[in-house]
Amino acid sequence: MKISIELFGQLSPLSPRRQTLDLAPQSKVQEAAAILGLNSEEIGIITINGVQSEMEDHLTEGCRLCFFPYLSGG
Amino acid sequence: MKLLRVDMNQSQVRWEPVPPVYERLGGRALIARVLLEEVPPTCDALGPLNKLILAPGLLGGCSVTAAGRLSVGGKSPLTKGAKEANAGGTAGDVLGKLGIKAVILEGQAPKDQWLILRIHSDSAELLPAGNSRGLGTYATSDLLQEMYGASCTVISIGQAGEMCMGGAGICVTGEGRQRSNHAARGGLGAVMGSKGLKAIVVDKPTGKTPPFADADLFRGAARTFAQKLINDPKLGTKGSQHLYGTASIVAAVNEMGSFPTRNFSNGNFEGAETLRGEHLREVTLARGGEAGTRCMPGCVIACRNVYVDATGKPIVGTLQYETIALLGSNLGLGNLDEVAVLNRMCNDFGLDTIETGAALGVAIEAGQGQFGDFESIRRLLAHVGEGTVLGRIIGNGAVATGRVLGIRRVPAAVGQAMPGYDPRSLKGNGVTYATSPQGADHTAGNAFGARKEVNPLGIQGQKELSLRLQIIAAMLDSTGLCLFARPPIIANPQLMVDMINGRYGWGWTVEDYDRFNRDVLRTELEFNRRAGLTTADYRLPEFMHTEPLPPHNATFDVPDTDLDTVFETL
């Protein structure tokens, strides 16, 4: 299945900021992170189609997955 | 320590020893207690019975990193309840070093008599405001530093405060030529204006340090605290806050569908790409501006910027998240140059960018301008500085603007405009807006980024999360700590207890610290109750319960029973 990815903040220089990945069905966020070479300790917020998510969550065909660094609101 | 009482009726100043009831309080905690002890809760917020209180936090003047904020408070003309707003700059530090627990302004100067309060090392005096009357905060700060010395700290209001507008804040200068630190929220600039006080000028203390009950305990805890901040992935030199400033969260809030867009009609703005903190940094550095500077002496987070135009000339320092949301996406603007110009105008008039951005959004919905049309928006905002009838409406905030212009989609709670998180898609903040004694104020308990704990779109756990955050915010605002400096204290409250005990020798335990924080909220809630605020004042506007917010089509559906029981376990 194809998913689109976007990386933000300090994560974006590590890999192209926007890209499309072709993953096996039922893949999880952590598998996409591994392919992108992201260090899980540097990931603060994850969203799938705008919904806050976690590394163990499953991806779906055509979804948009975003990785953000640690952020502080206020 | 001592109190400085300023009687504006008689133009007299008086130094007092700190009464026992105020001794163990600072910042927001002290403001809440002074309000309850000394201000009739049902008084006119812009009348002679209200008081304006300026107080450093308990750590003010102690040179703890990120702990030099100045709290300003009084009864708010917007919420009609207890209000505290705080600002960076040098004021909290210098007042703390001078041993001043609080400056309490009482009464009102005779009509059309404008004064300046000068505070020296061991004395204070009221002087005529002279030529500073009618000036914006930039010119006021320049003039007074020229007259009294460049090392003075200037605390001032602009035209908005002079005209007693509900959207008026109070501006504080910082190190060097730094301007634009604002205790912005709740209309406290109008309270200062109602007293006839244009500015406070504080001399830089020389060779003054507060006494320490246990200097070793204090130094050890303060050093550990600073090191923890430096090591925090969010806050250190490689952290988002330092690199991209508070605007680091633009993309995430937008992605999560909570980014106020065109008067809170969408949570996702198509022009957010060029409002992001990453873009802000890139443009700022390419043009020769500054990123990663500090608003308070010795702050290790350093999240400030100086935004410059295409020729490298400074427009505003600092351009921040809430301003980008309320004066940017909320008005349909995706160009930081335009947002920066509006920000500078607000700073100069002495206006809260949140309140004013929300009021402009409401005015545009009423047909007074066009979303995305910078020129029409700039003209609307210019009215405020000119004091036209339209300007006075907008300057009095979102609720006043909606009432006069016949708009019921007004993003406000307890009379105060909402900051840059639409509560329909970030429901923890909705609970804070709808329950905090401070009204719709993200700094009273911001749920953004509470990963793994609570689903921002769900209703489960929101009331518990909001209460926890509100208790922490009360601590930050009472010690002078910046909101961003909270992680090490949350992880280890003993650090704060050791700093307090090292400074004052009170023998606090973590339980005492927790009780202190909760008491701040209890005191404010009691003041608001006596002021006559009811459940109806606290509820979020009806349209947020019924109008689904794209892209998640969320409504604010946290049950009223949850809102009504948030403080049950306080």
Question: What secondary-structure arrangement, pairings included, does this model have?
Answer:
The complex is a heterodimer of chains A (74) and B (570).
Chain A: E1 2-7, E2 18-22, H1 29-36, E3 45-48, E4 51-53, E5 64-68
Parallel strand pairs in A: 1-5
Antiparallel strand pairs in A: 1-2, 3-4, 3-5
Chain B: E1 2-7, E2 12-17, H1 20-23, H2 27-38, E3 52-56, E4 70-75, E5 82-87, H3 91-97, E6 100-106, E7 115-119, E8 124-128, H4 137-148, E9 153-156, H5 159-162, E10 170-172, E11 181-183, H6 188-194, E12 197-202, H7 215-231, H8 240-244, H9 250-255, H10 277-286, E13 290-293, E14 304-308, E15 314-316, H11 321-328, H12 336-349, H13 353-365, H14 374-386, H15 389-395, H16 398-405, E16 412-413, E17 416-417, H17 427-435, H18 462-479, H19 487-491, H20 494-504, H21 510-531, H22 535-538, H23 542-546, H24 560-564
Helix pairs in contact in B: 2-18, 2-21, 7-20, 11-12, 11-13, 12-14, 13-16, 14-15, 17-18, 18-21
Note down, in words, how this protein is organized:
With 74 residues, chain A is mainly β. Chain A has one domain (2-68): Roll (Ubiquitin-like (UB roll)). Helices cover 11% and strands 31% of the residues of chain A. Chain A contains one helix and five strands. Chain A has a five-stranded mixed sheet, with no helix packed on it. The model of chain A has no long low-confidence stretch (mean pLDDT 93). With 570 residues, chain B is of the alpha+beta class. Chain B has a domain at 2-202: Aldehyde Ferredoxin Oxidoreductase,  A, domain 1. Chain B is 40% helix and 14% strand. Chain B has 24 helices and 17 strands. In chain B, strands 2-1-6-3-4-5 form a six-stranded mixed sheet. In chain B, strands 8-7-12-9-10-11 form a six-stranded mixed sheet, sandwiched between helices. Chain B has a three-stranded antiparallel sheet with strand order 13-14-15. In chain B, strand 10 (170-172) and strand 11 form a beta hairpin. In chain B, helix 2 packs across helix 18 and helix 17 crosses helix 18 (462-479). The longest helix of chain B has 22 residues, at 510-531. The mean pLDDT of chain B is 97. Classes of the chains: A mainly beta (74), B alpha+beta (570).
